[in-house]
Amino acid sequence: MTAKVEIYSSPFCGYCARAKSLLAKKGVDYVDHDVLADSTLRDEMVKRAGGRSTVPQIFIDDRHIGGCDDLHALDAAGGLDPLLRA
Q1: What digits encode the pLDDT tens for the residues 17-74?
Q2: What is the pLDDT of residue 2?
Q3: How many whole angstroms separate alpha carbon 47 and alpha carbon 76?
Q4: CA 82, chain centre distance (Å)
Q5: Which of 6, 5, 68, 10 is nearest to 35 (CA)?
Q6: pTM of the model
Q7: Which residue in 11, 25, 36, 59 has the most C-beta neighbors within 10 A?
């Protein structure tokens, strides 16, 4: 079973592209929520992310991972792959 990965992002966001690049490199399928195209998604993201309003905000199996730097730090610490395999 693979984890459900969701990323709230907006077009032209370098951090969003960097986070998506890492996920793609790992062969992870993810659901991309474009908060610029649908403002209700931004409200949903802020609520789910405990008030964080910057993109990207990343969730793995409904667990809030944080933003791009958080995702890369988790990967560097060896914690990302186990979550993706859960």
Answers
A1: 999 999 999 999 999 999 999 999 999 999 999 999 999 999 999 999 999 999 999 9
A2: 85
A3: 27
A4: 16
A5: 10
A6: 0.95
A7: 59
3-class secondary structure, 20: helix
CA distances 69 to 38, 62, 75, Å, are 24, 18, 10
In the structure encoding, which two tokens stand for residue 42, read together? Answer: 């931004």
DSSP 8-state symbol, 52:
-
Domains in the chain, CATH or no CATH each: 5-85 (3.40.30.10)
Q: Across 1-86, where does the E strand assignment appear?
A: 5-9, 31-34, 57-60, 63-66
The answer to whether the beta carbons of residues 30 and 37 sit under 8 Å apart is no
3-state DSSP assignment of residue 82: helix
Q: What is the pLDDT of residue 35?
A: 97
Give residue 1's pLDDT.
64
